């Protein structure tokens, strides 16, 4: 398209730029929200439920 200087060249460039900016904003927001996840059950030393513990009860 750039070799022929098509009238669609400028439009295509703007559409591509717009989609790129929207994609970047969505990825940035996902990263921001993902960084706010806290797993307090892991970090505060809470006991592990017996069904998930590695120790087996022997009766």
Automatic annotation (TrEMBL):
Domain of life: Bacteria
Keyword annotations from UniProtKB, A to Z: Membrane, Transmembrane, Transmembrane helix
Transmembrane segments: 12-32
Protein name from the UniProt record: DUF2633 domain-containing protein
